[in-house]
Amino acid sequence: MTPARDPAVSIARGLGIILVVLGHCFDPFSWYPIYSYHMALFFLLAGYVFNPRHREDPKRYVLARAKRLLAPYFLYNLLFAGLTALAAATLGLWTDLAPFSLRALVYEPLTTGHQFPLFNGGWFLVTLFFVQLAYLPLPRFLRGDGPARELAATGLLALVCVLVGKGFDLSLLGTQLGKVGFGLFFYACGRRARAWNGLSGLVSARGVTASVVSAVLLSCLGAKTIYNLSTMSFSGNPLLVFFTSLSGSLLVFWLARQLAATSRPASLLVVLGDNTVPIMCLHLIFFFLLNCLLIPLTGTDPAMLDNTLFGVSAPRLYPLYVATGLFGPIAAVRLARAAVSALDSRHKTASR
């Protein structure tokens, strides 16, 4: 079985996208904060399924990745430009934005990816594309494809990016370069983990227990790290960023392997894992729609609609937000595909 078809990888993606959606509405895991590892997990999983043969035909690989990541991103970007303009005209929200400007449609998506309030979650797709692009020629720059040299070089680069992010207010372009440098290390970790003989011993109950206990002890000592990779904002010890990222990813991957041995819970997670792109791009608009429903019912200030991460009574209702953020996008995409298929069938019938 190839890594790309390994059910544990799909399940890990499913668990990861749950963490993304959960992190945007309410984080119940204060002892192991979601924002201390969840984006590193996705870089690691992407590297885990990387096939070195792609380097034999880099042009084909880049085009395939652009079709998989950039094409849907920019289509969603155009959709949210229209939605932002509609919200500004009808609801008076985000009137300071210029949704159809060249900056919003081209420049910002290639940097921070924060051009539209309801589309902030999609930035990862562009960053992942650049990480995969940067990884292709890496052996040429390092004059070899050895794991030690690769991990040392990318780890040093990631540390520099974290330190720069901690010490400076980065420009839009600098933020994107920092995210790519950070993600490249975890992408390399994923790729090397697949061929590492010690992975099975690490992804075990003993390895995960040691990792989690260490993280909890550090948390009890006040050494908690929650970083926001989308803006290159880091707090606390820079080395702890790497520990929490790797230990959290290890915990998710171990859990995914356990679930891969079962059928019922794993099947749902595989569906989520196979729909990470639409969920990542669309879950905030479903939060917004839920807020539009709940705000009048609860007498909450309507001005809170300006905050797309706002959740009405988040500690109590976060399961509702998570379910809406996960399954709303899947339903929307399936309905859109069904509508396109129906129109196509009608067109073929009419042309006969």
Q: What is the gyration radius calculated from CA atoms? A: 21 Å
State the helix count.
Answer: 14
Overall 3D shape: globular
- Please indicate the percent range of residues in DSSP E strands (runs of 2 or more): under 5%
For the secondary structure, the number of strands is 0
Q: What does the average pLDDT come to?
A: 89
Low-confidence stretches: none
Structural class comes to mainly alpha
Major sheet description: none
Distance between the termini: 44 Å
What order do the helices and strands follow? HHHHHHHHHHHHHH
What is the count of distinct domains?
1
Q: What is the share of helical residues? A: 55-70%
Summarize the structure.
This is Acyltransferase 3 domain-containing protein. 69% of the residues lie in helices and 0% in strands.
How is this structure best described in words?
The chain contains 14 helices and no strands. The chain is mostly helical and 352 residues long. It has one domain. Helix 1 (7-23) packs parallel to helix 13, helix 3 runs antiparallel to helix 5 (123-135) and helix 10 runs antiparallel to helix 11.
